[in-house]
Specification:
A four-stranded parallel β-sheet has the order 1-2-3-4. The chain is built from six helices and four strands; from the N terminus they run αβαβααβαβα. The protein has a single domain, classed as TIM Barrel (Alpha-Beta Barrel), CATH 3.20.20.150. It is α/β, with parallel strands linked by helices.
Amino acid sequence: MPSNRREFMTEAGVVLALESYLSAEDNLKILGRVGSPTVRVYYNVGNSQAAGYHIFEEIRLLGDRIAEIHAKDTKGLYGKGSMDFVSVRRAMDGIGYRGRLVLEGTEMPLGPEEKVRYDAEYLRTVFLAK
């Protein structure tokens, strides 16, 4: 039996991931105060871009403190909006990120099903390319 809650959480494989509009620096302050490897950041590129942060630098700064990444473009279809997913991939590669990339749609000009199909196919060309 684990001797304290921190050990139990680590042994259980549970991760608490924080998603917000905070900067990487502010997220790192929170993570530092919490002091547990089981608390990380669920980084949303769309939220960070909307807040005016330099997302590629933020991804590099957060590094292995990122639990998952939300792919989101609030300005249109993926590849045609304002998000530079090729640079997002480069930043992810730069920190060795091999976790999940979760698609989050906000613009629905084609309707929900076609929009998700379109965005998923675009993301495949960027993130599954050799």
